[in-house]
Protein 1
Amino acid sequence: MDRTNPTEIEVLYRQHGAALLLFATSMAGERSRAQDLVHQVFLKLIENGRLSRAEDKKAYLFACVRNAVLNEQKVGARHTALEGDTPSFSPPNRDYAAEQNLRLALGALPDEQRQVVILHVWGELTFLQIGNLLGISSNTAASRYRYALEKLRDSMSVKENYYADSGG
Amino acid sequence: MPIPEDDRFEAYLRQFEPIAPDALPLKGHARESWRLPLLRFVAVAAVVAVAVASFYIADRRVPGHGSRSTSVEIAQPTRPLTMREANALLASAPSYKAVVDNMAFRTKGTPIPNGKQSALAALAKEKIKL
C-alpha cells in the first residue's frame, strides 16, 4: 500500500495547521478541544498513512477535521459556543482590539456562514471545494459567503480603517 | 461575481493570521523511524571507539615501544635456580626445610630450557640424610 511519509504530513501540519485549528475551533467552540481533535487527525494520518490516496490533500484535511469535530459532538452532545477570551488571530500592527472585534463578529455569524468564511478566507478553499466539503452546491457556498462578509463588515465597523490601508 | 468592496474587505481579513497550533505530540513510532537507526549507529560507534582506545593503550604498554616498563617482573626476570645458588642457600639457611620452602615460593617467571633441570628437581633426586 502507498503510504504517506510522516515528514510530509508534518509539513502539511505546518502549512495548514493554523487554518485547520481555526476551522475546528469555529465548530467545536473551544480552542483546546479543537487542537486536540486536530492533533488526533494528524496522528491518525501518520499512523495509517491514508493521506496518499487523497487527490486534494488540503480539502481532505479539512474534511477529516470536520468529521472529527462532528463525531465528538455526537458523542458528547456538546453545544458549540465560541470561546470569547482566547485569541484566534495574530492581528496586523498588533491591533488586538481589531482581533477581538473580528473574533466576536465571527462568533455572531450562523455556523454555516462562519464555516464558509473561514474555509474561504483562511483555508483558501474554492467555493467548489467548500461545497464538496459541506455537502452543498458551490453557488450556495458563495451565497453564504457574501452574506457572511456583509454581516462581518457591519459588525466590525472598520470600513474607514481598511479603506485607508488599501488606498480605497 | 465578486464585488470590489468584498475583495478589499477580504484582503483586510487575510491580514489577520490564524494562530498556529502547538507542535504535534509525536511520541511513538513516527519519530522512532529515524531515531532508532541513529541510536544504533551511535551505540556501535561508541563500542568501536572504546575498542580502538583500549587496543591503543594496550599497545603502548608493551615493552620495546618506547614506553617505560611498568612491571617489576619484566624488569627483573626470575632466573632458574642453579646448583651454586642452591648450595649457597643450604649453607646459609637454618634448616633444609626452610631452604625447600623458600625455593618453592619462588615465582616461575622463566621457563627452564629443554635438556636442563632446575636445582630443586636435582636436589629432590638426591638422598640427603638430615
Protein 2
Amino acid sequence: MTARIGVVTFPGSLDDRDAQRAVRVAGAEAVALWHGDADLRDVDAVVLPGGFSYGDYLRCGAIARFAPIMNEIIAAAGRGLPVLGICNGFQILCESHLLPGALIRNDVRRFVCRDQWLRIENARTAWTSQYDDGQEILVPLKNGEGGYVADDDTLDRLEGEGRVVARYLHDNPNGSYRDIAGITNEAGNVVGLMPHPEHAVESLTGPTTDGVGFFTSILADLVEA
Amino acid sequence: MDTIKHAEATPDLPQPYAELGLKDDEYDRIRGILGRRPTSSELAMYSVMWSEHCSYKSSKVHLRQFGEKTPPQAADILLVGIGENAGVVDVGHGLAVTFKIESHNHPSYVEPYQGAATGVGGIVRDILTMGARPVAVMDPLRFGPADADDTRRVLPGVVAGIGGYGNCLGLPTIGGEVVFDETYLGNPLVNALCVGVLPHDRLQTAHASGEGNLVILFGAKTGGDGIGGVSVLASETFAEGGPSKRPSVQVGDPFAEKVLIEACQELFERQLVTGIQDLGGAGISCATSELASNGDGGMHVWLDRVPLRDSTLAPEEILMSESQERMCAVVEPARLTAFLGVCEKWDVEATVIGEVTDGTRLTIDWHGERIVDVPPRTVAHDGPVYERPLARPVGQDALQADEPTAERLPRPQTPMQLRATLLAMVASPNLAGKGWVTDQYDRYVLGNTVLAQPEDSGVVRIDEASGLGVAVATDGNARHVALDPYLGAQLALAEAYRNVATTGAAPLAVTNCLNFGSPEDPSVMWQFAEAVRGLADGCQTLGVPVTGGNVSFYNQTGDVAILPTPVIGVLGVIDDVARRTPMAWGDEGDVIVLLGDTRDELGGSEWARLQGHLGGRPPRVDLEQERQLAQVLVAGSRDGVLTAAHDVSMGGLAQTLVEMALASGRGARIDLPGTASAFVALFSESSGRVVATVRPSDEARFARACAGHGVSLTRLGVVGSGVDASLGFTGQFDVPLADLRQAHEATFPSLFD
C-alpha cells in the first residue's frame, strides 16, 4: 500500500501534472484533487502546485484561498496533514494564513526563469527529511511575484525557530527578505517553497534530480508514521 | 438599423467601403454577388474577410506552388495540409503533431505588451482548433537597432507580453530569435509559433454540417477591442501624424485562454463537437462564414444572443470585434447538455448563437430583423485574387555587385585584430547571449522540455512511455534574402532544417511566416514571388512539405519596406529524446570536428553588418548536401557517437565555437583549417556547416560515416579542461572563457536593464 499524495488543480494551475509526475517518480500514488470539491479523497498529503490560480487576479492566491477544497486543507493541516505549496501554492498558503508573510512582485520587476542554487536550512520538516541540513541543491525557479516579505518580528521568529526551510544562494533572484526561498509552520507539516523541485526530478528535463528529495521525504515521513 | 429590407429600399445609399479598406471594384463585386448593395453588417464582414490579412488576395497565386511542388513524402505524413487552421503531421505511435507560425507585427508596434501577448494567444487557438493540446511556443522577433530609443520601448514590452501570456498559459517557450536591424525600427516583427499534439482520432475540422446542429460561441465575452484590427492594422501602412490606432489592438486575458484550452481538451476527448473554429482576426465574421463555407448546408445566427462586455456595441462591431479567447463550435443538439456541463466545470461561458440550416446561405438576425444574407463561400473563400505586377528592383544588380571583398572592406589580419574582432562580434547585440530575454519565459512547465533556447532547436517529449519527441527551429536571415530572395529563402529553410537535424531529429515538415513590405510595390512583390519560389523548390528538394503558414504584408515605414523577412519553421521527430544532441561540447578529450566546407562568403554576413555593409551574393546553398549532412547528424545521434553538435550560421565558426565553449564551461585549442585565411575561417557564413564533438574512440567511425555521405570533415582540435579555461587558436590568439562570457552576456543587461 503506497502513499496517496493529492495534487490540487485550480483553474489556472499549470504545474499540476508536473507535481503528479514528481510524486510518481518518488514512488507514491498521485491523486488529482479538484478545487471545487470539498473532498480530500483520503490522501496522506497534499501538494498545491504552481501556476496562476484564477489568473492571480486581485492578488496571487487570494481567490484560490476561498476554493471549497481549501477549507478542507486548512482544517486538515491543523490536524497535521502534510501540505507542500510550490510557487503559486506557497502564495495560496500565505493567503490562507497557514504560513506567515506574503509574496510580492520580484524586485527586478520581471518574470525570472532560471536554475537556482538553494541551501536546505531545515531538514527536519515532513518535506525535507531526506536532505541534510546545509545541503546545496540546484532546481528551477520561475516566478513573477516571488519576493518573500514579512515584518522583522516574524522574520526573527522564523529564523529563531528554525522555520526557514530553504534559502537562495549566490544571487537573490527576486528580492526575498533574508534570501528566504521557503518556510514551514510551527509543526513542520506545512511547507511553502518558491522554487520548483517538481521540475528537477528527471535528468532529461531538469537541471538536476535534486528536487526528488521533497517527494521522497514525504514518503519516508508517511511510512514512519 | 440597416436591414436587408432597408438595403433593398435604399440602393444608392453611399457606403464607407473605402474607409473599410475595400477598393471600388471590390465593392462593385460585392453588389454583384448580392444583387443589391450590402447592408452595413455585410459590408463589415466582406471588408474584414477580403482584407489582405484574411484573404491572401495578393499572395494566393504564389502560395499555390507549395501545393504544386509538394514532395512525395507529404502523402505519407500529412494528415491535414495547407488551408486549415494549421497543418497536421503524423509522427507515429498513433500521435500527430500540428504546428504553425503567425505574425502579430503591427499590433506589437502600437502596443508592444498586448500586441505580443495576443499574438501568442492567437496562434495557440489555431493549434487548439485542430483538436490538439498545445505543448510549446517559440517567438522569432525582429527589432530596430538595439540602442535605439524606440527599441527600448518596444522590446521590453514585447518580451514581457510574450512571457506574461505564455507563462500564464502554462506553455514552455522553447526557442525563438532576437535579431536587430535598422530596417525594423519603424516596423518590428513579432512572429509566434505554437506546437500541439493530438491522437489521430481527435483531429477536428472547421466545418458546420448537419441540419439542426447548434452553433455555440464559448469563451470570453465580446467587447469593443480589436474592431477593425484586421482591415485597419494589418493591411495598412503606418503613416506619420495619423490618428492613434490603439483601440484597434486587442487586449489579452491568458487565464481565460488557459481554461478554454482545458475545456476544449475535455470536449475533444468526450467527442462533443462536430466542428470547431477559433475566433481570431475578423472574429465572428470569420468563424461563422468559414464554418458555413466548409460545411454542407447554411447557417443562421441570432447575433443579439452574443454575450457582450459592452452593451452599446452595434451589430457591425460585434461582427468585426477581435476580442480574444473565444471559440465557436458546432454541436449536435443531443450533446448540448454535456457540452455546457464541460464549459461550466471550467467557468467558461457558452451560448447557443445559431444553428446549421438546410439552405445555402449564411443569415444573421439582430432582434428579429435580418441584417445579413450572403453565400458564405463568397465571404470566406471566394474573395478577390490579384496578380500583382512584379519588377526586379532597379538597384538589385548594383547591390549584388557590391561584394565585401578585402579591397572593398578592410579585413582584420593580425592575431590582435582577429582577437578584437571576435570579442566585438560575440558582444554585438545579434550575437550576444539572449538570456535577458529568454529568462523571462518559462521553459520548464509541463515537464517535457528536453532542449530549449539557446540550443539549435527546441525539443519536447510528447510521449513519456516511448520517449518520442519533436524538435522545432525557426530561422530567417533577411540580409541574405535582400541580396537574393530565391537563395535567401532557401538558406533560411536550410538553416532551420539543419538546426533540427543538429539536435538529432529527422526533419519532417515546414511552416512559414512571410514578412514583407507592400504588395502594391512591384519590387516587394518580386522579392515575395522569388522567396516563395525558392522556398517551394527547396522544400521539394529536401522532401519536407509546407503544412501552412502566414503572410504579413505592408511591413514598412512610409514608402520604405523592411528587408524581406521570410521566417521558416521546420519540425522534426526524434524517436527517443534521451539521445538528443546538445550544443555544449562533450567531455575533456573529446574531438572537435567541423562538418562542411568553408568558402570566402561574407555577403550579408554579420561581420559585414558591423562594418555597415550590405551587398554581394549570399552564401551558396546546396540542398542535396544539407540532406546528407542531416543524415549524418541524425545517425550520429542515434548511434550515440555525437557528444555535441552546433550549427554554424550568423557570426561564422567563431560564434559557434564560443557558444559551445560557454555552454559547457570547457575550453579548447583550435587548429583553423589552412585552406582559407584565418579571417575567412572564423567569420565566413558558408552554409551547410556544423561543429560536432565525438569521443576519441568514435572518431574514425564517425569520419567514415561522413565520408560515406560525402560530407567533408575537418579536425579542429580537442575539448580542454574547465579549469582556467580558454579558447585558443593555434598561431593566432587565446581568449579566456571568463572574458568571452563577460563580453557575450553583458550586452543585453547593459542595453535593457
Protein 3
Amino acid sequence: MSSARNYESLGREVKRQLGDGPGPQRREHIKKAFSEMTVASRHRPPRRRSLAMAAALVLLVGGATFVLMEVMVPRAVVFWVGSETVQGEEGAWLQASAEEPLPVRFEDGTRIELRPNSTGRVVTANRKKVSVELGRGKLRADINRHQTRSTWTVEAGPYRVTALGTEFSVVWNAEPFSLDVRVFRGRVGVRGPGLRPKGRELGAGEHLSLRKEGTKTVTRFGKGAPGDPDVAEGGPAALESQERDEAIRVAKLGPPPDVMHPPQTTARDEAPAPRGAKVAGLDGHQPESWQEFYDLRRYAEAIEAAGKSGLEELCETLDGRELWQLADAARYAGKGVEAKRALLSLRRRFRDSWRAVIAAFLLGRVAFEIQGDARAACNWFHIYLREDPGGRLAEEALGRSIGACDEAGMRSRAMQAAKDYLEKYPQGTFTEAAELMSSTGGDAPK
Amino acid sequence: MARKVSRLGGCGYLFGKEHFAGMTVEVDNSLKVLHLPGQHPEVRTLVSGLQRRDPKAAEAFYDRYQDRIHGLVWRLLGADDEHDDMVQQVLAQVLASIDGLRDPDLLEPWLIRLTVNTVRKEIRKRRMRRILHLTPGNPEVASNELRPERQQLAIRVYEILDGMGVEDRIVFTLRYIEGHSLATCAIARGCSLAAVKRRLNKAKRAFSKLAEKDLVLASWMEGETDE
C-alpha cells in the first residue's frame, strides 16, 4: 500500500491534467437549456413530466451537438494494438512478429489481425472512414457492420479493397507480385491494375487471385463447394436438429460467420464457381426477393424487399424456417418492429415448436438491444425462463435479464435475477454483472 | 441563551438537522436550531425560486454552483465526451428533487450527493451494458476527451479506475482527484465517516494492485502507510 501523500500528489497531478471541464461557451449553452427546462417544468406534476422534458432537452442538445460534430469533424475511432490497453496511433507502422499474429481492435467492435511476419498500419480512423494499409503479408479483417458507420478500406500496393460489412482476408506481396483476397462473409469491392475500371466485387466464399504474369482467377471455397463439411447429411431429422443448434448458437452469439476458418486452398484444388451461382453485383444476377437478399446476407435490403411484398402477409404465410430467417434478417438489419412482428407471428403460429420458445428469448434481445425497451426485455427473458427453465439459453436469459430489469427500474426483479444467477452459475458469463448488481444494488441513488 | 455546537468529524442528524464535519450550529436552550453559519441567506431565496420554477433563480443557481457540478462530473467520469449530457441530467434531477429538499441550508451537501448519485447511476449503467456486450470496447475509457500526448497520466489513472468497483472508483476520485475531505466524501456517499475510511482503504488496495503493472504509475505508488 502506498502512502496517502503519494495518492494525493498523484490525484493533484491528474486533476491538473484534467482541468476544470468545458469552457464558457458550452457552459452557457447548458445554462440556457437549464433555464428553459425550468420554465418547461412549471405548471406540471413535479416529477415525471419535468424529467421527461429534461430528457427530451438532453436528447435535443446532445443530438444537435452530435450531428454538428459529425458533419464538421468526424470523431476519431479509437483502436488498440496487441494487448488491450495500448492505444494505437494513426500512421504508425505495425509489425507482427514471426511467431504470433498482431490483433488490432477498434472501438466499434471491428477487429483486424496482421498475420505473422506481416506489416501494416492504420492510416485513417474516424467515423467516416477507416483506412488500413497492408505493407506486406496477410491481413484478416472482421468488420462489425452492426456497429460501424465508417467506410472501411484496405490498401495493398496499388489495390484497394473496400469492405461492405464483412469478414475477409488480404494477402499482398510486392516481390514477387501477388494479391489474394478471400471473402468469408458479406461482400468486398477490389480496385486496381488488371481489373475493370469499376473494380471487381466479391461475395462470400469467393477468392480473387492476381499474379505478376497477369493471371487473374476468381474461385469459390468453403460453403457450397464440393467437399464442404457444412453440407448437412442424415436426412430431415438431422437437418432439423442442426438447424436448432445453429439457431441457439446464433441467438446467443449473433449472426453466423459463414466460414470462420476456411481451408487454405491452393489454385489447384479450388473448385470453380457452381454453375448458376447467384452472385449479385457488377457482373451477376440482381437479387429481387427478400430470400435472395437474405442468402447474400444483405439483410437491410431483404427487409426492404419483404416490406414491398407485404410483411404482414409473409408473417402469415411463410413456413417456420422461412419466418425464422425473416426474423433473423430483421434483427441483423436492426429493424426492431419487423423482427418483433416476425417473432410474435412465430410464437403464435408455431406455438409448439422449439422456434416459438427461442423466439421468446430473441424478443427479449430485440426489445433491449434494438428497441431500447428494457421493461419488455425483462418480461420476455422471464417468459423464456418459464417456458424452458433448463434450456441451453437459460443462463443467457437469466444473465441478460439482470441488466434489462435494472435498466427498466424493476430493481427487485433485477436483484432476484442476480441472486439466482450467482447461485446457478457462479462462474458464468454474466457473473460480473450479477456481482455488480448485488454489490451496488443497496447503494443505488435515492 | 444561544450556544454553538460544532461537529469535528463525520455527519449525521443533530437537533433534527443534517449535520456534517466543520459545521457549527447555533442552538437555543431548548436545542432549537437558530442558525447554520456558513450558509448565505440568498441560498434560501435560490431554493424557493427553484421550487417555484423561476428561470432567473435557475440561472442564479447555475452561476453559483456550476463550477462545483461541472468539476465533480468532469472528474468522476474522467473528461467524458458525454459530459454536457451528464450535467444536464444532474440539473434535471435538481428540478425533479428540489421540492423534496426540506432544509434549504443544506443545499450544497444535497447537491453534491445528488451529483454523485447521478454519476454513479451512469457508471453502473455503462458498466452493465459493457458486460452485456451492448457497447463495443471500453466506453468508460474510449469515449473520453483526453489527449494522450498531454494527459497521459490522467488516461492511465482512469483506465485503472475503470477496472475498479463503482463505489471504490467514486470514493477514490472524490478523495484524491477531487481533493475532498473524508467528511465531504461521507456526505457525498451518504454514509458514515468510518464507512468512507473503510471504503477508501479498499479502493487504495485495488488501485495499488492495478497500478503496480503500470511502470509510470508504479513510480507514484512507492511508500507504505495507511490513512
Protein 4
Amino acid sequence: MKIDIENKDNGVILHPEGKIIGDGVTKFRDEIESQINSGVKWIILNLAEVPLMDSSALGAIIMAYLKLKERNGKIAILYAQKNVIDVLNITKLNSLFEIYDDIQKALKSVQTVGSLSDNQ
Amino acid sequence: MRVKNKSLTREIILDIPSEFKHIYLLDLVVSYVSKEMGFNEETKEQVNLAVIEAGTNAIKHGNKNDPSKNVHFRFDISDDKLTIFVKDHGCGFDPSSIEDPLSPENFMKPCGRGIFLMKALMDEVDFIESDDCGTEVKMVKYKVSIDKK
C-alpha cells in the first residue's frame, strides 16, 4: 500500500493505492496524523485505487474527522469503490462522512470550510 | 499452507505469526479459497474482509501482537459452503461483552466494528470455547447465501 500526497492551499488530497489492511492501516493512520499535525484544515481521501479497507482503517478516518472538526476543518471521501461504500453503509458511517464522486464538488465543500475558518 | 483432501471437503490450513504485515498473505490465501469456492466478486470481498477482521482481532486482542504466537486458520471447502476457523492463543473473551457500534454512545468511537462487520458479512459467526487457552471463531459462508434473521 502506498500513498501519494497532493498538497493544496490549507489542505491535502491523499491518494492511497491498494488494500488498507494489516500494517497498511498503520501507514495510512500515520500519514493522516502527520498531515493533521502539519496544520491542514481539510483532507480529501481519494479512494479510487483502494479496493478494500478494514475497520481499523475506518477508525483512522473517524479520528481524522474528530481532529479536523475540532479546528473547524473537514474530511471528505472521493471516488470510493463499491466494496468500500458497502462497508460504509453497513457501519452507517456513510451518514457521518461526506462522500463524493466529483472532485470539484469535494473541493468546493472542504475549501469553503477552510476559508470560513480563516475569516473567524 | 497445507491442503488436505477429505471425502467431500478440502481443508486448507494456514498459520501466521502475530504481525500485521502477514494480513496481506492471509488476504491472498482467502482470495484463493474464494476462487476455489466459485464465489462472485462481491462475496469474495465479503469473505476477505470478514477473515481479515477475525485475523486482526486474533493478532491484536488474542495474541497481543506477540510474533512468537501464531494465529491458526482452517478453511473447509465443500460444495455448498465455506467454513472458516480462526484460533488465537489469548485468554479468551466474552462475546456478550461486545458493544453495538451503531448505538449513539459508540458510533463515534474509532474501534469496535470488527466483529460487527464479521457478523454482517458472513452467514454464520460463532465463538467456540476451547479446552485450552484461546478464542476460536467459526464463520460460514454458503454458496447461495441464506437470509439472516
